[in-house]
Amino acid sequence: MMMFHLHRLPLLAVAIVFSSTTMAAAQAPGLASVPYCDEVKHIANPAMTRERFASIIGKPREGNFRGTSLSLTGWNDCAFYGMAYYTCDSSPFMTVEDAQQALAKISRDILVCLGKTWTKVEEESSADYAVLHPMLGPASIALNLDQTDDDQHLVRFSLFLRRP
Predict the structure, then answer these.
(1) Is the dihedral of CA 33, 39, 40, 45 positive or negative?
(2) pLDDT (average), residues 37-60
(3) Across 104-118, average pLDDT
(4) Which of 105, 116, 133, 158 is most open to solvent, judged by the fewest CB atoms within 10 Å of its CB?
(5) What gap in Å lies between CA 110 and CA 95, rounded to an integer?
């Protein structure tokens, strides 16, 4: 009969967590190629709690915009609009087709990153717009195409809280 010593239980717990995390990462190879995955999780998770975005909202900017202490890796101009609307812009693309392909890939990447707790709302999505909802909770992610003043195209990421 195997006996565990109480002082070794924390080490066993760490080993089990590490093993399950390693196995989950191995089962989802696409996660390693999503450089902003950890940030998306960090933004999406508090959105579902009473805290909301309080820990990552920064100093006031022009108008109703506020800075943020958490930007998505590889994205530009991340900010809050008000207290419940987080937004970032992708790097620009030369053609609308390139931006549409990027939007589709980003949508898939975010769904892989957030796991089976989020889904794409197909009836509200198109080649220029994607809507992602959690199975439970008031948050939504919208991805849409936009155009810069110099006629380049970009994907805008927005995570916001829906009103009941």
Answers:
(1) positive
(2) 79
(3) 95
(4) 116
(5) 23
CA nearest neighbour of 127 among 153, 148, 92:
153
Q: Round to whole Å and give the CA distance between 163 and 119.
A: 19
- Burial degree of 46 (CB within 10 A; 0-12, 13-18, 19+): middle
| Contacts of 110 by beta carbon, 8 Å cutoff, 6+ apart | 34, 40, 118, 132, 141, 143
3-state secondary structure of 27: helix
Q: Which two tokens stand for residue 101?
A: 């392909």
> Model confidence over 20-40: pLDDT tens digits?
333 344 444 455 579 999 999
The two structure tokens encoding residue 109:
């990447």
Q: How far apart are CA 32 and CA 74, in angstroms?
A: 14
**3-state helix/strand/coil string of 60-118:** ECCCCEEEECCCCCCCEEEEEECCCEEEEECCCECCHHHHHHHHHHHHHHHHHHHHHHE
